[in-house]
Specification:
Blueprint: H1 33-54
């Protein structure tokens, strides 16, 4: 009886059909990480400003 190289018994946590990581395409964001950080910082300051004005 031939046993396949990748069976669920040998690899219980690994699915049998896994894509090759080199073939997975991740779309890059047009904005950089520093842009998101600046937007977050501005919104944080604005939310504190609204909090202190109304409360």
């Amino acid at each position: 009886m031939d046993v396949p190289a990748e069976s669920h018994v040998d690899n219980p946590g690994k699915p049998t059909s896994v894509e090759d990581p080199s073939e997975v395409k991740i779309s890059e964001s047009p904005l950089s990480q520093s842009t998101y950080l600046a937007i977050w910082a501005i919104s944080l300051v604005a939310s504190f400003g609204i909090f202190f004005v109304y409360f």
